[in-house]
Specification:
By secondary structure, the chain is α+β, with helices and mostly antiparallel strands. Helices cover 30% and strands 34% of the residues.
């Protein structure tokens, strides 16, 4: 995947201060996010990394249909405690298309349609 830097900013969160970095997949045009902490220094120690696929209802709305929100929050806490790490937050085009095509689709039905029930 060839990527291009888009922008970055500081992001204070309930789990500590992070740097949020937007980048774009050049082959698809999709934008993704990296949340980073302590990556300005080179370390000889292993670095915590999580690749997290976006799931809006679980990540933002605490849906009980998945445990992705708690996994993301746990990783942010672990990275903050370690002082260094990265979360690659990958957007899912299929999910966005599903929302556009079915604007009033309930969380339960969305999970069922994505095979998550």
């Amino acid at each position: 995947m060839a990527i291009e830097f888009v922008s970055k900013s500081k992001l204070p969160t309930a789990f500590g201060n992070f740097e949020i970095i937007a980048f774009q997949d050049q082959s698809t045009g999709e934008e993704h996010i990296a949340l980073a902490k302590g990556m300005n220094t080179i370390s000889n120690q292993p670095v915590l990394v999580r690749i997290h696929s976006e799931y809006l209802t679980g990540d933002a709305f605490a849906s009980l249909k998945c445990d992705c929100g708690p996994q993301l929050q746990s990783t942010m806490k672990m990275i903050n405690d370690a002082g260094q790490g990265v979360i690659l937050y990958l957007r899912q085009a299929l999910l966005h298309k599903d929302f556009k095509d079915r604007a009033f689709l309930s969380c339960l039905n969305l999970s069922d349609n994505l095979g998550m029930s």
